[in-house]
Amino acid sequence: MTTALRAQGLGKKYGRRWALTDCTLDVPSGRVVGLVGPNGAGKSTLLNLSVGMLTPTTGGIEVLGAPAGGEQLSKIGFVAQDTPTYARLSVADHLKLGARLNPRWDDSLAEARIQRLGLDPKQRAGKLSGGQRAQLALTLGVAKRPELLILDEPVAALDPLARREFLQDLMEAVTEHELSVILSSHLVSDVERSCDYLVVLVDSRVQVSGDIETLLATHYRLTGPRRDEKSMPPNQYVISASHTDRQSTLLIRTDEPILDPAWTVSQLTLEDVVLAYMGRSSSAPQNNRPVLEVQR
Ligand SMILES: Nc1ncnc2c1ncn2[C@@H]1O[C@H](COP(=O)(O)OP(=O)(O)OP(=O)(O)O)[C@@H](O)[C@H]1O
Questions:
Q1: Nearest to 65 by CA among 154, 153, 180
Q2: InterPro entries, alphabetically (predicted)?
Q3: Is the CB of 48 under 6 A from ligand 1?
């Protein structure tokens, strides 16, 4: 299995503050990866490290099987959070520039996308709305025909319809061109709609990463008579717990069947899983168990 992104003990410090800590990840290629986490979790830092725009303070990072940055850049499409474009260049100029700079540039894809979006090729990028500028930057990223497309909150500036269409486009591109995608988002609904792999980053640490189907098949809500989570069997990893006087509700991860008849067991949605991991901070006790990695 080839790897889109591999990080080993990766960390990044700005001054005295860690933006990313001890990040170890192995993201397979050919997947659409949703990177989610609250503001300031370290998502942009991880994405910028993966394109070599930042250098690690600790550890290492590989994309598509080689160290980030350098020659790998020709295989990567990257759209940064602020969707950078050249304010004085027109939409058409951006496409020309894309064609000159990228050997695998797909002109018909770029033209068709600009036309479908209703962008005026003569309009200067500086005069586009935030959402239109994001669409232009995304078009450049996709038309480069990269092996790996890295998008930092790509749909944040788009209206709901444009967001849905963009995510649909993206999924089609993945199927057609064996593309790998890593996108960060605050919206679990976007991840649910378009991604098949999840990475949750909280407080500069990876809390969970894995295939979404597998995550959904191994996480449960248990409701039953009040019970201390510390008394749970070792193969049932407690992610969150809440208690009333008489009742406990636990969100757990396990690969084994739950046999205890005292529990009422229900499935979790992706949002339940994400929120459960987001609710944990690195300062909260985590039973000294390792960060979870769930892969097929
Ligand atoms: N250039 C910088 N100098 C100093 N601190 C920075 C810099 N860039 C980011 N940080 C800090 O690093 C931490 C992680 O920031 P990062 O932008 O990676 O988070 P994020 O998860 O992408 O957040 P958001 O969802 O708000 O975009 C934050 O505490 C942020 O303040």
A1: 180
A2: AAA+_ATPase, ABC_transporter-like_ATP-bd, ABC_Transporter_VariousFunc, P-loop_NTPase
A3: no
